[in-house]
C-alpha cells in the first residue's frame, strides 16, 4: 500500500490521529508537520499532491529512522536502546512480508519471537575477545548500565567509519551485528539482565505507536476486520538500506539452489575465495551454497562479482524479468526482487490456487522458460517447456475450480485423448470450453487454430450445446479479434479472447468482493464477442450481486 492509498482506508480515530496529528514528526525543507497536521486527509488534493510526496522524501525518512530519542521513548522504559531494538524488530518483520504488512497481533508476536530467537542464538564466547564490535558493545553498557542516545550516535558513527573502509558489504557493521554482540553478553534487548529478557507485547506495541507517530508505519482496519500494520511502499528502499536488508536467508538459499549457475563448482569456489567463505563442504555443492548464506554474503555482491554478465542476462530472460540487459545493477536488483517476492508471497501450506493466481501472468508468458521457484514442486515433467504448458493448464483449472468455485470444471487436454479442448465447465445447463495458448508472441488465431476450435465445439455439440469458448493467452494480435468474430458467426458460439492478466484481475475481484462458500462465478460474465474486458464483467457482477 502506498501513501496515496491511505487516504481511502478505514482507520480507528486514535490510529489516524497518531499518523496525522502527532507532534513528533521531524521538519525538513519539503515537509512541514504543522501544515500536514492541519490538512490531514481533509484536503485530498493537498494530501496527494503535497504531503504524501513530502512524507516520502528520503531525507525525512532517514532522519526519523536515526532519531535515537523517538516518540514514546519514555514509555519504553525511558531507554533509547530498547526503543531501537523494538522499532528495528518491527521494521525487519514487516519488510519480509507480502505487501510489507501484517495483522497487528501477529506482528507483535513475531517481534517478540525474533527477540527470543536472537537471545538464544548467542552466548558468552560466541565472538572472539579481539572482536572490536564486542568491545564497543561492552563499553556501551558499562557506562551507567545503560545505552543512551549519545552512545547510540557514537556506535552509529563508528559503523559509518568502519563500513567506508570495507571492500564488501558482508564486512559491514549493522545494528543487527551490534544486537548479536549484546545478546552474547546477556544485554539484549534490555541492558539489565532478567529471567524474561524479551519485551512484553504491550511494550512492543509502544514501539509500534512510536513509528506511527513518525508516519513510518500505518495501522488501518480492512473491511473484513482485523488491524493491518504496514510500511508504505514509498519508504521501502530507504528502510531496506537502513536495515541493510536485501532478502531473507531462506530466500537467498532458495535462489542459490534454483539457479543453474550456482550448481557450477567453479563459481562456488570463486565465491568462497572472493568473500573468504569458511565452513566445511565435503566436496558437495549444496554445502558450498549453504556456507555462502551462513557467511553473510550479500546477494547483490555475489551476483555482481562472480556471475558472468551473459549468465545474468540469460537469468533475466529465462524468468521474464523487467530489467535492461545492458544495465548490470538493474538486472541484479530484478533477480533479487524476484526471488524475494516469489517466496515472500508464499505461506507454508498455501493452496495451489493461490500460488497459481499470483504467478498466472508469468506462467502464461511464452518468453518465460523457467518455472517460478514457488511452483517447482507442483508439476512433474522432464521438458522445461512442457512443464510450463502443463502449469498453464493446471493453473487455469485451479482458478476456475477453487477461486471461482465452479464445481463443474473438468480438465481435458493432457488428461484426455482425441479432439478436445484444454477444459470444460458446466453450470445450470450452460457449457463452456476453453483452450490455453501459451505464446512468446501475440496469438493471432490463424485458420488452422480456428479449424481445431470448430472441431472441438462440433465434437462436444454431439452431446450438448456449447455457449462459450474461451481462448486464454498472454496477448492477441489485432486480427485475432476479427478472426474470432468470423468464427463465432460461422458456428454460433460466443468466442472470447481472454488476456491472462484479465482473468487474473477477474479472479482477484471475485475473491475480494463476491466470493462466498456456495456461490459460483456466473459463466454469463463471458457472454459476448471478441476480447474479454474485466471492467464490463465487474459491472455485471455488481448488478447481479448488489
Topology overview:
Elements: H1 13-21, H2 33-39, H3 44-55, H4 58-65, H5 80-95, E1 101-103, H6 104-121, H7 132-142, H8 149-164, H9 175-184, H10 201-213, E2 218-220, E3 228-230, H11 236-243, H12 249-258, H13 265-274, H14 285-294, H15 299-306, H16 309-318, H17 328-344, H18 352-364, H19 384-403, E4 409-411, E5 423-427, E6 430-436, H20 447-461, E7 468-473, H21 478-491, E8 494-499, H22 500-514, E9 530-531, H23 534-545
Parallel strand pairs: 6-7, 7-8, 8-9
Antiparallel strand pairs: 1-3, 2-3, 4-5, 5-6
Helix pairs in contact: 5-6, 5-10, 5-11, 6-9, 7-9, 12-14, 12-17, 13-14, 15-17, 16-17, 18-19, 18-22, 20-21, 22-23
Main sheet summary? 6 strands, mixed
Counted by DSSP, the helix tally is 23
Strand arrangement across the biggest beta sheet: 4-5-6-7-8-9
Strand content: 5-15%
